Amino acid sequence: MEVVFLKKFYKDLDKIKKSKDLKSIAEIIELVKSVEVIDGIAGVKKLSGFENAFRIRSGNYRIGVFVDGTRVEFARVAHRKDIYKLFP
Length: 88
Prior knowledge:
Helices cover 33% and strands 34% of the residues. By secondary structure, it is α+β, with helices and mostly antiparallel strands.
């Protein structure tokens, strides 16, 4: 899949301090690049009320993505208590 990162995603990544969390997020990004359908990844849920918004679970963090065909936009990454205030 084609992967695109929004500026907010990079800013959110800078706020994450633990290397373990950053490493797991990097693994998820590589996994998304290698699959053909986003639903094939464990921990992915479609957000109700939004046609193309999904969240991917990564430990205590959630990654908010928009999917349009074969293009995935990584929009936000935040702690699980905060992600739904920020995304979508």
